[in-house]
Amino acid sequence: MIILYALILVQSILASSIQLNERKYFQDENGAIRIFHGFNVVYKQAPYIPKIEGFDYMETFSEEDCKIISDNGFNVIRLHVSFEGAMPKRGELDEQYLDKILMIVRMAAKYNIYVILDAHQDLFNRQFCGNGFPDWATQKIDFPSPTNIQMRFDSQNYPLLEDCYKQKFALYYSSNDIGKHFEMLYENQNGLADFFGQFWQRIAEKSKNEWNVIGYEILNEPSPGNYQKGKVDFFWPGYANKKYLVSFYKLIHNYIRKVDNEKIIFFESDFLDVLGAGFDQNIGGIEYQNKEVFSYHVYCGIEKISSWSCNRINSLLYYLKMRNVQKLKIGGFLTEFGAVGNDESSKDILDFILDKADYYQQSWTYWQYKGYNDHTTMSTMYEEGLFNEDGSFQNLKFNALRRPYAYQICADYIETNQYYSDTKEFFLTFRTKSGCQTKVFIPQQLDSSFVFDYKCRNCSLIKIENQHYEVVGDGDIELYFQL
């Protein structure tokens, strides 16, 4: 029995962890480049975790959900780990909650699904119509001042959600209370940032030997500070990153690195840094450039506009985000986009941004897999996910996301890994190397017969399972097919 436990421990330590190679591609232990396509799984309200048994269109993330994701060519989730769920009392971690997160991680591993652990927040706390930080770290004074929105509050002093919906959720970031609380976090008032660091240290300690955990995303969409205190500073490109976020991120980085010096740390710029000012340097210094990833979101705004206008905005935003990544000399990952409906305009938006992601050879997680009773979203909790209320797929959206891609490439560098959604053509070009395999997902569309023609120069295409193929060959490989 002791030998068995020892073997399990060795296997967990030596299992397929993901690192960045010299060209900042994600790379597995065999030296193959990995590309990730998947979804956010973010349950923002109590109990801060989806149901893990059965299936429904709104609340579950179960083995059935894992099978749906895996069967359709997706291989990653960005999973919310809640600070308010993990530390409901000041300085006291809820190990049972963290163990439930670990259960989901290990359930995903059974289906070869990788995980990014993400400390999600929107509007800081439920007292401010949001989520993310616990009540003990929050003191509501005059929310939603200075707006004159009339709000009613329940017995827990939380505003009624129907009153929160009176304006777009992002506009509440201009309130006095939210601005003060983000300043408190960034300046570590009352030790709040230290408590947050202890939370992350424990997550890393519990997750460091889980082969499918890619890494840890410190904080979702951090606010640029206190709008009421300095409106110019709030909007000035890159100002909040340099004034607040660099030092805050370094603090959390140091907590994580006390227990895990290997897994990747993901970090974002402030959510208003749409012009791409970014950061002057990565948070851990040169020695950690192969262990850090710039996490970025691409949305065309908080109001719905035409797909043509949205695509023009997204094209500029994506270019600026890639400039950030290149400047920092670290990896990049599109961790949020979408939140769209199931219509032709939404499909056009998805096709455009996913074509861009292919062009820049970027991995992505769509927002989001299900609605999960999301009360802070650009869309609605009913339309942003993949499923209709009867559990059927929203086919236009789902087919746009189920696109061909090489998710495992036996190479040091990829020349092309591109699907063109308008012509339904796919191109894969690289120079192969020994010791690993190249695998491609070629989806059978849900509403059409499956026919594709392909050409493979210096290679052959071998079906290994439903919709998954292996590319076998030597030297310069060129694969082309059209659905």
TrEMBL record:
Pfam family, one: Cellulase
Biological process, per Gene Ontology: polysaccharide catabolic process
Top-level taxon: Eukaryota
UniProt keyword Signal present: yes
Signal sequence residues: 1-15
Record keyword 4Fe-4S present: no
InterPro entries recorded: Glyco_hydro_5, Glyco_hydro_5_CS, Glycosphingolipid_Hydrolases
Glycoside hydrolase family domain boundaries: 61-371
Keyword annotations: Glycosidase, Hydrolase, Signal
Gene Ontology molecular function: hydrolase activity, hydrolyzing O-glycosyl compounds
PANTHER family: ENDOGLYCOCERAMIDASE, PTHR31308
Name used for this protein in its record: Glycoside hydrolase family 5 domain-containing protein
Source organism (scientific name): Paramecium sonneborni
